[in-house]
Amino acid sequence: MRMTTRFRQLLKEPGIIQAPGAYDCLTANIIQKAGFPAVYMTGAGTSVAQLGYPDLALASMTEMVQNAASITETLAVPLIADADTGYGGVLNVRRTVRQYERAGVAAIHIEDQESPKRCGHLDDKKVISTEDMIQKIRAAVDARTDDDFTIIVRTDSIAVTGWDDAMHRCDEYVKAGADVLFVEALRTPEEVERAAKNLDIPLLFNFVESGKSPLLSASELENFGFKIVIYPASALLSVAHVVGQVMAQLKETGTTSHLMDNMVSLEDCFEAMGLSSMLAEDAQFAHPV
Predict the structure, then answer these.
(1) What is the 3-state secondary structure (H, E, C) of 35-85?
(2) pTM as predicted
(3) Which residues are catalytic?
(4) CA within 20 to 30 Å of 81's CA: 25, 88, 123, 257, which one?
(5) Which CATH number is 3-233 given?
(6) Distances (CA, A) of 289 to 184, 200, 286
(7) Could you tell me the residue ranges of all domains in the chain?
């Protein structure tokens, strides 16, 4: 089954879809091994971990698609990918959709920030007009060659133009063809619940530690009416913390022998990336019958 079709099935099945954020193949496979039904490729994580930049629209479409393609090659669950603003105008959006489709991605989200954009949980964002975003959505929907490829549309307008405009935009984005809505940086549990009551379409919630939104549990979000929750920063921030601790101890003591309980074994690390199956393939095909 295509991953696009599997993701559409998940949208129809009961329960909320939890999709933790990965920024490389290892984190994606750790998420998959933990039993999550989908993985989210974080733009912030890709920018930080792959390119060495903060989340300020410095990652190109090509770099994002390349990372997504590497991740999907190792996954057996659908990948949702950050596609930022679509990387330009309507023609860029069309190309972005086609490239992500070819990379094996099941769903992307595009947003209504002006370019260059910034992390949705930073201040001083700007948004394009509703009309311009409608054209981008129409271009994205028309560009897909697989009808099951899911177009998630994000609005950052609450922090810029206010609640009423954000809800108006959401209504217009649905009319333009959005499959899922993503209202970024909802500020209180009351706003989260209010958005779910106002919008009759699958909704995505962005769970960002240290961000602007309340850290609600998956069950709370499901009860409000949300269908998807992504965790773009959980792995990234955890790794930054743990690696920092280990490196500090290594610098101080000159060894990590006392820290082995904080690490997986080398074999387990390789196994997360398919060691056993690859060795079996090598044994099967490397020698003449």
Answers:
(1) CCCCEEECHHHHHHHHHCCCCCCCCCHHHHHHHHHHHHHCCCCCEEEECCC
(2) 0.95
(3) 40, 55, 82, 84, 109, 111, 119, 154, 184, 206
(4) 123
(5) 3.20.20.60
(6) 58, 60, 9
(7) 3-233, 240-285
